[in-house]
Amino acid sequence: MPTIRGLSAKTIEAYRISLECFLTFLTFLTDHEHIDRAKVSFDHFDRARLNAWMIWLGDDKQYATRTIALRLSAIKAFLAYAAAEDLALVALSQAARSLKAPAAPRKPIEYLTEPETRAVLAAFTGRTAKARRNRMLLILLYDTAARVAEITGLTLADLTLTNQAM
């Protein structure tokens, strides 16, 4: 992997940990489905077990959703590699690719209050050309809800000076 795909040692370590984690899960399944490490095969990488593994990671191991997504992506990469080497494993790889990691909870966006917005705009009084430019950029960002990258990427060709349609 470091030579052919150019992966870093940390990425390879993350892949190893993910595979090790799945193997650990297989050995700690319920009593009637305990799987010995020496007997693990590609048949054990089925969709149902991978789903159960993700639930186990979240519920029993208390992994964060991003860690579960990282572990799952490593397993998917492993199965994609295996499928490229053996066509009999393509269906298994495709089934794993369709799995979705749990979504991370999104934090609500915190907006500036009206007094905070006034304070930011008041920081540029407009006495110098730079201050007027900065104030105008802040107003443009605020009024358009554009990202900074979108504003800095604007060119003169992006400007349209026609009457607005009614």
Blueprint (SSEs and pairs):
Blueprint: H1 9-27, H2 47-59, H3 65-85, H4 90-97, H5 114-122, H6 129-144, H7 148-152
Please estimate the helix content.
Answer: 40-55%
Shape: elongated
What structural class do you assign from the helix and strand content?
mainly alpha
Tally of extended strands?
A: 0
- Uncertain regions spanning at least 5 consecutive residues: none
**What's the main sheet like?**
none
| Residues in β-strands, percent | under 5%
Q: How big is the Rg? A: 26 Å
Number of domains: 2
What distance separates the N and C termini? 59 Å
Verbal overview:
With 166 residues, the chain is mainly α. It folds into two domains: 9-97, no CATH class; 114-156, no CATH class. Helix content is 55%, strand content 0%. The radius of gyration is 26 Å and the shape is elongated. The model has no long low-confidence stretch (mean pLDDT 86).
Annotation keywords:
0% strand, mainly alpha, 7 helices, 166 residues, 2 domains
Summarize the structure.
With 166 residues, this protein is mostly helical. The chain has seven helices and no strands. Helices cover 55% and strands 0% of the residues.
